[in-house]
Amino acid sequence: MTDQNEPQLTRIQQINRERILEGALTAFSANGFRGATIDQIAEAAGLSKPNVLYYFGSKDEIHKTLLTALLDMWLAPMLNLNPDGDPLDEVLRYVRTKLHMSRDFPRESRLFAYEILQGAPHLSEILGGRLRLLVEDAVGILAGWIGSGRLASVDPHHLIFSIWALTQHYADFEVQVRAVLGPGHDPFAEAEIYLENMFRRMLEV
């Protein structure tokens, strides 16, 4: 949310901010927060270092801004769980969506993984606040389905964790997955079939 007291950005300023965040995504996802530099971000954005620092006061500010925006995008599919929908269809749709996001946004997934592996210094408040509340809402929906006998009895928290782990693995460890499978394989297409079958067998009653 934008602070109402902040001046509105011009179109050029908005474009430059977006270029900086895109350049930061490239630098941070390749090198992590510690390894990335303002110079690398500026080069990836096609802007000068002073220009980058005009829009963002520090590397830390860029990183936090980027992570917050990415987390919003990453968590959005969980908001779409429909309590009135078919439980199995809703869970499988969530699995597919998370896998497709790993396929389409691998840098974003790796950046988030980097942050978590470092102890989430830039996201600790969000993870323990908004993320936790969002997960609790989803757990409530899943628990309702399980309690009414519409899904098999599983721990809702760990079901969500397993979906995250099994879908984001294909982005975070894509090089390893492709190396092991070898040429002629589409890891994400094959994973979609496998994961849908696995979760269907786990959850259907």
From TrEMBL:
Pfam families for this protein: TetR_C_3, TetR_N
Domain HTH tetR-type: 14-74
DNA-binding region: 37-56
Segment forming the signal sequence: none
Matching InterPro entries: Homeodomain-like_sf (IPR009057), HTH-type_TetR-like_transc_reg (IPR050109), HTH_TetR (IPR001647), Tet_transcr_reg_TetR-rel_C_sf (IPR036271), Tscrpt_reg_YcdC_C (IPR013573)
Gene3D superfamilies documented for this protein: Homeodomain-like, Tetracycline Repressor, domain 2
Keyword Hydrolase: no
Keyword DNA-binding: yes
Keywords: DNA-binding
Database matches in PANTHER family: HTH-TYPE TRANSCRIPTIONAL REGULATOR RUTR (PTHR30055)
Protein name: TetR family transcriptional regulator C-terminal domain-containing protein
Classification of source organism: Bacteria, Pseudomonadati, Pseudomonadota, Alphaproteobacteria, Rhodobacterales
